[in-house]
């Protein structure tokens, strides 16, 4: 809070196009930062799902960019920051930091940038990654603090040449809905869950192939796929693959849902077969908070959340046979399904909560603003 006892106002400049992991981080921060003296507003430069799906109720300004490098919204943001007394700007993507850096300079306030994934490995396109990384690096000149969401991303930033004093790692966190529910281990059909914004780096092809392998082993199961596809082209590729492998009849395509916890209640396990480019996936933490065992892959950031055999299971990225075998081992009882549920839930409650994340970000703000 400021000297008058009022909450200090900060503005998060975000894309707002989707409501996936990074957007859920932004929404939770807006809900919890007031507990630590900060009031959050949003400026959306690609307004779409976020404004409709968020749970927070603070001010939201829709300032759409007319093109990828349209800088006009920066002047509107700077005007609002100066007029309404915002103390700090906080950005989350290469696109939003392009606008946020200019707005911060115009308004004379410090800039904080959240790093949710490694920009140089965020997509399958080398040139897109390269362009985004250059834009992000140039835009971050003079940034007050970088907030990576995992130790792996902290190392990534240090390898990019950022000094340690500019970096403050704050692990992601989620709301714990309540006490760990009592559930029985499935004895017949298992429901495998998948929750994602489906794009190539999420490894959906690997999961579809693993599903085919499991059916050949005689396992009774269904796949419940929750989320939208990034493009219609990719959706067609995945659904055609499911048809060709003969597993389309055991896949339920649920689409996007705002209340993902309702879907977790219908899953016996949750699989995130990422190939690369992760920070600390929110969907893993959300599954843990609901007591759903998670199977993911050995990519950056995952090992900080999942300890194989205790808080979840880890497969080799890109290896459908390995993934199928680990899923079969869980179904066959090699791993204790209930013990994994309990250990993962306790880890989330103790280390990866909404309050631990908000408290960490608030401490960064306090340091920058000399509180």
Structure description:
This protein is 40% helix and 16% strand. It is an alpha/beta fold and 371 residues long. Strands 3-2-1-4-5-6 form a 6-stranded parallel sheet, sandwiched between helices. A 6-stranded parallel sheet has the order 9-8-7-10-11-12, sandwiched between helices. It has helices at residues 21-32, 49-53, 72-84, 94-107, 126-139, 151-159, 204-216, 232-244, 260-264, 282-289, 320-332, 337-351, 354-368, and strands at residues 8-14, 38-44, 60-62, 88-91, 111-115, 145-148, 190-195, 221-226, 251-255, 269-272, 294-297, 313-315. β5 (111-115), α5 and β6 (145-148) form a beta-alpha-beta unit. It has 2 domains: 8-173 and 353-368, Glycogen Phosphorylase B (Rossmann fold); 190-351, Rossmann fold (3-Layer(aba) Sandwich), CATH 3.40.50.2000. The protein has 13 helices and 12 strands.
Keywords:
6-stranded parallel sheet, Rossmann fold, globular, 2 domains, 371 residues
**Structural class label:** alpha/beta
Number of strands: 12
Mean pLDDT equals: 95
Largest sheet strand order: 3-2-1-4-5-6
What is the CATH topology classification name of the largest domain? Answer: Rossmann fold
Q: How much helical structure, as a percent, in the residues?
A: 40-55%
Largest sheet: 6 strands, parallel
CATH homologous superfamily name of the largest domain? Glycogen Phosphorylase B
CATH class of the largest domain: Alpha Beta
- Taking all Cα atoms into account, the compactness measure Rg is 21 Å
Element order, helices and strands?
A: EHEHEHEHEHEHEHEHEHEHEEHHH
The portion of residues forming beta strands comes to: 15-25%
Number of domains: 2
Number of helices: 13
Low-confidence stretches: none
């Amino acid at each position: 809070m400021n000297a008058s006892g009022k909450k200090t106002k900060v503005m998060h400049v975000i894309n707002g196009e989707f409501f996936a992991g990074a957007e859920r981080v932004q929404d939770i921060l807006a809900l919890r930062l007031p507990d630590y003296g900060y009031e959050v507003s949003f400026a959306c430069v690609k307004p779409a799902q976020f404004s409709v799906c968020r749970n927070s109720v603070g001010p939201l300004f829709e300032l759409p960019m007319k093109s990828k490098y349209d800088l006009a919204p920066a002047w509107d943001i700077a005007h609002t920051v100066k007029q309404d007394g915002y103390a700090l700007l906080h950005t989350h993507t290469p696109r939003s930091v392009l606008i946020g850096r200019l707005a911060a300079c115009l308004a004379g306030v410090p800039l904080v940038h959240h790093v949710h994934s490694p920009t140089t490995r965020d997509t399958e396109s080398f040139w897109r990654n390269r362009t985004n990384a250059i834009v992000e690096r140039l835009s971050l000149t003079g940034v007050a603090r970088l907030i990576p969401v995992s130790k792996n991303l902290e190392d990534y930033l240090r390898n990019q040449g950022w000094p340690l004093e500019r970096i403050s790692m704050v692990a992601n966190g989620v709301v714990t809905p309540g006490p760990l529910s009592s559930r029985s281990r499935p004895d017949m059909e298992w429901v495998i869950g998948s929750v994602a914004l489906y794009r190539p780096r999420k490894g959906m092809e690997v999961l579809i192939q693993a599903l085919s392998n499991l059916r050949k082993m005689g396992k009774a199961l269904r796949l419940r796929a929750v989320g939208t596809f990034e493009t219609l082209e990719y959706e067609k590729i995945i659904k055609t693959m499911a048809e060709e492998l003969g597993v389309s009849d055991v896949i339920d395509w649920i689409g996007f849902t705002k209340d993902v916890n309702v879907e977790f209640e219908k899953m016996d396990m949750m699989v995130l077969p990422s190939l690369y480019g992760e920070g600390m996936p929110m969907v893993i933490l959300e599954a843990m908070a609901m007591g759903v065992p998670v199977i993911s892959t050995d990519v950056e950031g995952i090992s900080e959340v999942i300890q194989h055999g205790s808080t979840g299971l880890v497969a080799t990225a890109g290896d459908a046979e390995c993934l199928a075998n680990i899923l079969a081992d869980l179904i066959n009882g090699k791993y204790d399904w209930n013990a994994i549920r309990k250990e993962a839930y306790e880890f989330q409650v103790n280390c990866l909560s909404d309050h631990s994340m908000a408290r960490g970000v608030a401490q960064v703000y306090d340091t920058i603003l000399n509180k």
